[in-house]
Design brief:
Oligomer: single chain
Shape: globular
Helix content: 25-40%
Order of helices and strands: HHEEEEHEEEE
Number of strands: 8
Number of helices: 3
């Protein structure tokens, strides 16, 4: 007997609940004020401007550590999202969103291309390779113009054990 397709609203609610659980599991995301916008399976991280994010008040410019953290958080959320997508779409998570084990950073290299201005920033990550134990992710961040990046990064991550 074939299973009837779920209503679109049910699928959307499950995806949103799973993403909310993922984001809530990282307190630093709340501290920085990072938000994650989901359109289908594509995620965009948003770093709303806040005075506490400024590193050099003379310019003013976003702190380099905040920029690096924003990029790393974006990479980890994207990698985790990709890791749970198939299970979520198969309906393995019904009422409760999964308890998600996050990948661990092995290394993370940031290229600072220009100063981050005192305004909102956006980032998207792309998983270049994801195996059972190791993953590689590239992240780009911009402010007003998607083609005018102010930083990018590449990270390598140790994947959590999916069997235990």
């Amino acid at each position: 007997m074939s299973r009837r397709p779920e209503p679109v609203q049910v699928v959307k609610q499950r995806r949103d609940a799973t993403l909310a659980t993922l984001v809530a599991g990282v307190p630093y995301i709340q501290f920085l004020g990072i938000q994650i916008d989901r359109r289908g399976d594509e995620l965009t991280a948003i770093l709303p401007y806040d005075d506490k994010l400024i590193g050099n008040p003379m310019l003013p410019a976003l702190h380099g550590g905040v920029t690096a953290a924003f990029l790393e958080v974006t990479a980890i959320v994207e990698l985790s999202w990709a890791m749970i997508w198939e299970d979520m779409e198969a309906g393995k998570y019904t009422d409760d969103a999964p308890r998600i084990q996050l990948p661990k950073t092995i290394d993370f290299t940031v290229d600072y291309l220009r100063s981050g201005l005192p305004r909102d920033a956006y980032a998207r990550a792309r998983v270049n390779r994801s195996g059972r134990r190791y993953a590689s992710v590239h992240v780009e961040t911009w402010q007003d113009n998607r083609s005018r990046l102010f930083a990018s990064a590449t990270g390598h991550f140790l994947m959590p054990d999916r069997n235990g």
